[in-house]
Amino acid sequence: MTETNSAAAADPLRAADVLAQRLYAAGCRHAFGMPGGEVLTLVDALTKAGITFHLAKHENSAGFMGEGVYHSDGAPVILVATLGPGALNGVNVVANAHQDRVPMLVLTGCVDAAEAATYTHQVLDHQAVFAPITKATYRLNAEAAGVIADKALRIATQPRNGPVHIDVPISVADAPAGPHRPYLAPARATQPQPADLAQARAWLAEADRPVAVIGLDAVAEDAGASLRAFLEHYQIPFVTSYKAKGILPEDHPLCLGGAGLSPLADRHLLPLLREADLILALGYDPIEMRPGWRNAWDCSRQRVIDICAEDNTHYMHAASLTVVAGLAPSLRALTVGAQLADDAPQGNAHWPDGQPEAARDALAAAFAADADWGPAAIIAECQATLPADTLATADSGAHRILLSQMWHCYEPRALIQSSGLCTMGCAVPMAIGRKLAEPQRTVVSFSGDAGFLMVAGELSTAAELGVAPIFVVFVDASLALIDLKQRQRRLDNASVDFGLHDFAAMGRAFGGNGVRVRDRASLRAALSEAQQAERFTVIAAEFDREAYDGLI
């Protein structure tokens, strides 16, 4: 070992090093953000720990890129922002992580407390800003750097997941860290109570018309195998929220499809729920759902079992039996117990009048894939042309509602989106992060033209990172969903239309490919070529305004 390296090895760890090494130990390999002078030590520490720092063009996009990676590798997101405007630029994506249950470490630089006493330029209380939209907020202390890092990670990753903020003063980042403290073992999933299991088993055995609603908690817990065994044993048809799509393959015979934002879908699914005699809310977090799903069932005449990560404080729905426990162990106990007692043999007939099958057929007809052109045809053509294991991201807007009903998922997280906060501009950066994490997979982003314009500069990030997602843009020069609501309320057209821009040219200008399409054949050809391209491709799919009427 050289003298220089020996001296470096003897140097005490900085507080920033301790934080970075703890994040690396948690599986983090990527960090995203915009550096400023106040976070240079932090970025240096992340890099030395083995975590690659990726420069985005906006902190909001940086957070969504991190979320894209998280859905592939499962490690918490790291968002780095400098003080003042940098931190505030990240507010939206942090709030989104809070509502979409994404584990995220929000690391912001700040001036030292003594400096802030007499210096005001760009100085504000970051902890006060982030407290309402995070699970916790800390100010890094050199002596307790390891404890703060460990606490932040535990809180961010315990059910339900969410963001945790750490403010890092300049001098603290460089200060020698205090003595190492051992990390605590992660907590195990809570087991259900025997009395609750007995009650649930009895109701399952007596049910003639059961139906399950599966949500985001099931995905966070990776409960797919337990869900499959349970639902197949009891032969229970199920609906998923949009973010739970693919928890079981959507071609499963018990799957009725996704729900959450489409009034058209609700017309077929909500009546089925009202006819059920037993409803099972399995990892169902109603934060994704529209108002029509508030009090979607009636506990005075229906039995409802709610197995959830947290007790019901939202009051979006009620339950006859609430089990606050791990979903997977609860379902395993119910399935194994029933098998041992032989009280619900596999293949037990339910719904003798075939209402679930009728609802599934009605949904398929309502969201038909045979249109000549328009938003439904674009989605159908993309699904038909791209590989079955394609990873998709969806921006908010009318196209997302249609896409979430029509796009079939065969694995969890195959379609990711902002469902809790419904943030525009998320799809492009999430696709960049997803492709960075899984370069061998086909990744496609679906954006409305307005949402795409919000983050078009991140195309340069895709070029710099050398990733090649496919960016499909629904081009109708309108805020289509807001325009539709405006017309439904018989209001005058106002502030929803904008210019018809050349999005394909934007793709080429930022170093990728770009093509405009107005029919299925052209779209099919563009998708096929994009899959072979070494650079990203922007496909601008143009159609007439008001094309969503009657579709969502």
UniProtKB/TrEMBL annotation:
<protein>
    <submittedName>
        <fullName>Acetolactate synthase, catabolic</fullName>
        <ecNumber>2.2.1.6</ecNumber>
    </submittedName>
</protein>
<dbReference type="InterPro" id="IPR012000">
    <property type="entry name" value="Thiamin_PyroP_enz_cen_dom"/>
</dbReference>
<keyword id="KW-0786">Thiamine pyrophosphate</keyword>
<dbReference type="Pfam" id="PF02775">
    <property type="entry name" value="TPP_enzyme_C"/>
</dbReference>
<dbReference type="InterPro" id="IPR011766">
    <property type="entry name" value="TPP_enzyme_TPP-bd"/>
</dbReference>
<dbReference type="InterPro" id="IPR045229">
    <property type="entry name" value="TPP_enz"/>
</dbReference>
<dbReference type="InterPro" id="IPR000399">
    <property type="entry name" value="TPP-bd_CS"/>
</dbReference>
<feature type="domain" description="Thiamine pyrophosphate enzyme TPP-binding">
    <location>
        <begin position="395"/>
        <end position="540"/>
    </location>
</feature>
<dbReference type="Pfam" id="PF00205">
    <property type="entry name" value="TPP_enzyme_M"/>
</dbReference>
<dbReference type="Pfam" id="PF02776">
    <property type="entry name" value="TPP_enzyme_N"/>
</dbReference>
<feature type="domain" description="Thiamine pyrophosphate enzyme central">
    <location>
        <begin position="198"/>
        <end position="334"/>
    </location>
</feature>
<dbReference type="GO" id="GO:0003984">
    <property type="term" value="F:acetolactate synthase activity"/>
</dbReference>
<dbReference type="InterPro" id="IPR029035">
    <property type="entry name" value="DHS-like_NAD/FAD-binding_dom"/>
</dbReference>
<keyword id="KW-0808">Transferase</keyword>
<comment type="similarity">
    <text>Belongs to the TPP enzyme family.</text>
</comment>
<dbReference type="InterPro" id="IPR012001">
    <property type="entry name" value="Thiamin_PyroP_enz_TPP-bd_dom"/>
</dbReference>
<feature type="domain" description="Thiamine pyrophosphate enzyme N-terminal TPP-binding">
    <location>
        <begin position="14"/>
        <end position="128"/>
    </location>
</feature>
<dbReference type="InterPro" id="IPR029061">
    <property type="entry name" value="THDP-binding"/>
</dbReference>
